[in-house]
Write a structure and sequence with these properties.
This protein has about 475 residues and is of the alpha+beta class. It contains eleven helices and 20 strands. Helix content is about 35%, strand content about 25%.
Length: about 475
């Protein structure tokens, strides 16, 4: 059955609620591990079937705390893990199947004594209820009767948590997963929705409620995307519209948090390897980076969908990425940028929006003039100049344009690019200029970058005008 997941956070309205949840989740961890232990014992004992392991005997121990519905959800979760294990094992032993080359391990436990336990639980769809409101939202769910009596809850009373965030999907409620994040003192909420439908109607909501939207005035069939560390996504459509999403300011924030982590690590005691503050800074750095990537992909995907694009070519960086001698460049390319995570986000979001896409190699895409095809070009950061026809543009826009022309039915003429002889009139406007929107990330939303800002920033992605203009050949 088709399903999607809303990712939210929740907080404790009272200290009592926090104690109740932690005890409830700790019992859920222990329940899962006890079930898994009994099935492991059966698996490693000759002649015993894991599905006949006496896991139902555990009900008397855990149901008074977590309730029968949650016990059933946890038992089913563990059963799913074992079913996946047996499927992988079958593929591993199949000589004609090379998809699994390493022998799979039996399902593991939730946490350990040395590393701690995750304080995680699962709630069945008929045992919880959200209440959404402009002034605040909540979720209530059933807990065990013994736990109610311990903390003075009424017979029909449920545990209530305050919920934060916007849901993107509506539909039939599925399983609710709750996991306590001790470093940030919040609960991570995964709300599964079956038969999902988009709630937002084409808008992208950030964590702070800002709305990102790109205007669409064309009816393009094809588009191409150039991926980069300085400009996360540069997209060009076959109708001659383009958008450049600048990531430099976000990298500066990422780098400042990296320096903060290094400082905190230098202050640790000799026998210490981490601290709560370091873990929180790591998480904050990763969450900000991931939020930036998510917002970028969502913005571009919805824009392309509204434009009517049928197929998108995404630059494949296999054999393009390399380790650089400069540590700063390496950090930007391999730590901040997270190319694999970006591709995963594109795959999920484009599937969700309903945009068809494929990957094609980016090798050499920014080294050829899209107007005349010459390789006699000069690149300097984001600036691109053709020394034969005088074409000037943004190097990432050039890369996306070349991908578009090479791998789709779009033509340079259709996009708005026409070669001009060298030595032409420098004051004449380029016929059919690409319409390029420059955006920068302000930590909450994508906002337009004005021409004056681009001219002031020596290192900005916006320093070179993206609109192709003719200038004298050098």
């Amino acid at each position: 059955m088709d399903a999607r997941t809303n990712q939210l956070t929740a907080s404790f309205p009272t200290e009592t609620a926090k104690h109740v949840f932690c005890e409830f989740a700790a019992a859920s961890d222990a329940c899962y591990n006890s079930i898994n232990y009994r099935r492991q014992q059966a698996y490693f004992t000759d002649g015993e079937n894991v599905w006949e392991a006496p896991v139902r005997e555990l009900r008397d121990e855990y149901v008074p705390i977590i309730g029968s519905g949650t016990f059933d959800q946890i038992e089913r979760k563990n059963a799913d893990a074992w079913e996946s294990f047996f499927e992988l094992l079958e593929d591993y032993h199949d000589p004609e199947n090379q998809s699994v080359t390493e022998k799979p391990s039996v399902p593991g436990y939730w946490g350990s004594r040395s590393e701690g336990y995750p304080l995680r639980t699962l709630i069945r769809n008929d045992l919880y209820e959200f209440e959404w409101g402009e002034d605040g939202s909540t979720v209530e769910f059933t807990i065990g009767q013994a736990l109610k009596e311990t903390y003075g809850y009424g017979h029909y009373e449920r545990l209530r948590l305050d919920v934060h965030g916007d849901t993107r999907w509506t539909g039939k409620d599925g399983q609710l997963e709750l996991c306590y994040d001790e470093d940030f003192d919040v609960i991570r909420v995964n709300h599964t929705v079956r038969q999902p439908a988009l709630r937002t109607g084409g808008h992208s909501y950030t964590q702070t409620g800002h709305t990102n939207r790109l205007e669409s005035s064309s009816d393009a069939r094809f588009a191409a995307i150039d991926l980069g560390a300085n400009n996360t996504i540069t997209a060009v459509t076959s109708a001659g519209e383009a958008v450049v999403c600048n990531a430099r300011s976000e990298f500066q924030r990422f780098r400042s948090l990296s320096e903060r982590i290094a400082t905190l690590q230098s202050q640790l005691a000799t026998d210490s390897y981490s601290s709560r503050q370091i873990r929180r800074t790591f998480a904050r750095r990763g969450n900000r980076r991931d939020h930036h990537l998510d917002a970028t992909v969502r913005l571009v995907a919805e824009w392309l969908h509204e434009t009517g694009v049928e197929h998108v070519v995404v630059g494949d960086l296999t054999n393009v990425l390399s380790t650089h001698w400069n540590a700063r460049v390496n950090e930007k390319t391999h730590a901040f940028w997270s190319h694999g995570g970006l591709i995963d986000r594109i795959e999920v979001t484009f599937e969700e929006i309903g945009v068809d896409w494929s990957e094609e190699s980016e090798t050499g895409s920014s080294s050829t003039c899209p107007a005349c095809g010459s390789e006699h070009v000069e690149r300097d950061g984001d600036s691109f100049d053709c020394l034969d026809c005088g074409y000037r543009g943004h190097s990432d826009v050039v890369g996306a344009t070349n991908l578009l022309v090479e791998h789709t039915d779009a033509s340079a003429l259709e996009i708005g690019l026409m070669a001009q002889p060298a030595g032409h009139d420098a004051e004449r406007s380029w016929r059919g200029d690409l319409q390029v929107t420059h955006l920068k990330w302000d930590d909450h939303a994508w906002i337009p970058t004005h021409t004056s800002e681009r001219e002031r920033a020596d290192h900005s992605t916006n320093e070179a005008s993206a609109n192709p203009q003719v200038h004298p050949a050098r």
